[in-house]
Amino acid sequence: MIKTIEWKNNAIKIIDQTKLPLKLKYLYIKDLRTLWHAIRRMQIRGAPALGVAAALGVYLGIRDLRTKNFSDFCKELDSVTRYISTARPTARNLFWALERICSIAVTNRYKPIKTIKKLIFREAQKIIDEDKIVCRKIGVFGEKLIKNGSSILTICNTGALATVDYGTALGAIYRAKERGKKIKIYVCETRPLLQGSRLTAWELKKNGIDTILITDNMAATLMQEGKIDLVIAGADRIAANGDSANKIGTYNLAVLATYHKIPFYIAAPTSTFDFNLRSGRDIPIEQRNPKEVTHLFFKQSIAPAGTKVYNPAFDVTPHKLITAIITEKGIITPPYERNIRFRLRGKGL
Amino acid sequence: MIKTIEWKNNAIKIIDQTKLPLKLKYLYIKDLRTLWHAIRRMQIRGAPALGVAAALGVYLGIRDLRTKNFSDFCKELDSVTRYISTARPTARNLFWALERICSIAVTNRYKPIKTIKKLIFREAQKIIDEDKIVCRKIGVFGEKLIKNGSSILTICNTGALATVDYGTALGAIYRAKERGKKIKIYVCETRPLLQGSRLTAWELKKNGIDTILITDNMAATLMQEGKIDLVIAGADRIAANGDSANKIGTYNLAVLATYHKIPFYIAAPTSTFDFNLRSGRDIPIEQRNPKEVTHLFFKQSIAPAGTKVYNPAFDVTPHKLITAIITEKGIITPPYERNIRFRLRGKGL
Fold first, then answer.
1. CB-based contact A215 B194, cutoff 8 Å
2. Is residue B325 scored above 80 in pLDDT?
3. What confidence tens digit (pLDDT) does each residue in B137-155 have?
4. What percent of chain A clears pLDDT 90, i.e. is strictly above it?
5. Which residue of B has its CA nearest to A219?
6. List of chain B residues whose C-beta atoms are within 8 Å of the C-beta of residue A225
7. Helix (H, G, I), strand (E, B) or coil at A62
8. Residue of B203, B221, B228 to mutate, testing the A interface (most A Cβ within 10 Å of its Cβ)
9. How close is the nearest chain A Cα to the Cα of B133, in Å?
10. In sequence order, which residues have a C-beta less than 8 Å from that of residue A103 and are 6 or more positions away?
11. Residue B118: what pLDDT?
């Protein structure tokens, strides 16, 4: 598997995902501002990968600080995390990673700043290592839901390119393939930024998986023709009641799957859950540049000049349309509010 | 209004719709082969406009025939109409126009070939003139379904560019605007060929209508947010039971509208109805070039080389999801089989 994000040569090494599938180009990011723009421009994207980018980003932002005073250090750390958190608002994992890094600093506040810096770097590395394990566990659980001979519909990219190296929804698909199951994957191209055609088709093909690309508006007719056995999507933020924000178009697929009586699964690590939000209504939805819709790759115009655009990057699928949520801690089924609390937070009923 | 297709300078004059919205370029088509390719390449498209193109195309194909013998003329006419009918399979109007032109020849078989040629040309002109009246009537009936202040979702292009000069579904919208109603139109970009962003956004803007462009996968979230009051789409072929084939993505919108309890209308002339087909299952669906999905405008690659694609140009919306069908003979509501027979064919119950 390719490595989407890692620490190498004193820098964050990422695949520039805006260049795929035409070029596999790596970037070495050495400063915070470049990282912020890489997240904003989606050179790195995918909720779990954004968690890793945020964690490593904090280290980039604090590693050269000269202060030896914890209070000053803390102010700087706060300013760095605030800055990173403005890059993109929806993916929970980004905020989860920032909180985790900050709590390392607080827990070790009596240690020398140099040590705290090391511990922060170590925590970021831990997030990377954990992501690999978490994705494989999601794969193991998710695979159980895939029967031999299945045709699966997916959207956006939830594979190696959205995580450190394996994937969430695509993790289940990779695992099914590893277990010798014969599967066929229909990939929604995922306008406007085409993560389906550019990224998912690219990595599935690389991994020898039978892949068929469709435009987003073809999913309904595939289901009508009986060509889809199940839908698996990822998530960017999941509320305490199971409502799930994911790439725009996911809610569309959930409605279609419900109408055609096809199982609809969400696959995501527990770091995607936001237990502070009671329902999906509270999830902040990023509105992006209209040029993503009116131009291809911000260059070629495909709409009349001055066309008004509505461009939400995500939508929210209500929990009642979700058959199950696949996490590294197991498969969660309805009733979600109760089962999320019980399974993920270890809280009694 | 712009003229999408007309007879001028001894040629078929059309707008080259593959060049919009960047260029408003006219083509003068003087031979049958060029016409065939113009239809196939969708330089001219839209079911009613294809009817006109087919009718004028027959005239192009037979005007220079030297024979004075009806039997020889008829063989050539048959070969011309067969050739045109292979350009695209789904739009009923194309076949309807060919049949209409052929029956003119048969009815006048005892007249001189020169006269028959003139009558064929006159019939093609009649189809043009009728299309203008039919669209305005569809507009008058359709407008009644649009309340002041409505937000309307539409797909593909069903306006002036899909007809001679006014439109079917967009005809209803133009009429609502003419009657002073305040309306807002959300336009699905309509992948893969982007008729929504390239053509509909262009002509709505030109006519001063408040237009917002979305990618196809955003329709669901708009409905969830309560932003859509009704959906109007066109049709390429309607079966005797009301099942309607239209641009890929239409069935998706019909399922979404049903789920969100939003009215879903089809607007089409009676020439779109195929009374020989009992249901939508019998409608031939055109599969098009995979490059439409993997490349933008057949040039810029947006998917890995060699990606497999499923690319049906149309889907079929079952009649049970259609709130009403707007025709030039009035608004048809369920039960469709009975009401189509009664209203459009004048057959008793």
1. no
2. yes
3. 999 999 999 999 999 999 9
4. 97
5. B252
6. none
7. helix
8. B221
9. 29
10. none
11. 98
- pLDDT reading at B349 higher than 70: no
Q: What angle do CA A321, B191, B204 make, to 5 degrees?
A: 105
DSSP line for A89-120: SS-HHHHHHHHHHHHHHHHTTTS-HHHHHHHH
Buried (b) or exposed (e) across A265-303, using 16+ Cβ within 10 A?
bbbbbbbbbbeebeebeebebeebebbbbbebeeeeebb
Three-state secondary structure string covering chain B? CCCCEEEECCEEEEECCCCCCCCCCEEEECCHHHHHHHHHCCCCCCHHHHHHHHHHHHHHHHCCCCCCCHHHHHHHHHHHHHHHHCCCCCCHHHHHHHHHHHHHHHHCCCCCHHHHHHHHHHHHHHHHHHHHHHHHHHHHHHHCCCCCCCEEEECCCCEHHHCCCCECHHHHHHHHHHCCCCCEEEEECCCCCCHHHHHHHHHHHHCCCEEEEECHHHHHHHHHCCCCCEEEECCCEEECCCCEEEECCHHHHHHHHHHCCCCEEEECCHHHEECCCCCHHHCCCCECCCHHHHEECCCEECCCCCCEECCECEEEECHHHCCEEEECCEEECCCHHHHHHHHHHCCCC
Condensed to tens digits (0 to 9), the pLDDT of residues B55-69 reads 999 999 999 999 999
- Give all domains of chain B, ordered by start, each with its CATH number: 5-135 (1.20.120.420), 140-345 (3.40.50.10470)
B87-121: pLDDT as tens digits: 999 999 999 999 999 999 999 999 999 999 999 99
Structure confidence at residue A299 (pLDDT): 87
The predicted structure's pLDDT at residue B150: 98
CB A183 within 8 A of CB A210: yes
| CA–CA dist A221, B312 (Å, integer) | 9
Can you spell out the DSSP letters for A143-163? HTT--TT-EEEE-S--BGGGS
Q: Coil, strand, or helix at residue A205?
A: helix
ipTM here: 0.96
Map residue A241 onto helix, strand or coil.
coil
Q: With CB atoms and an 8 Å threshold, state whether A296 touches B293.
A: no
pLDDT at residue A349 greater than cutoff 70: no
Mutate to test the interface with B, among A90, A209, A218 (most CBs of B within 10 A): A218
Neighbours of B110 (CB within 10 A): 8
Per-residue burial over A308-324, b = 16 or more CB atoms within 10 Å of its CB, e = otherwise: bbbbbbbbbbbbebbbb
Please give the pLDDT value at position A348. 57
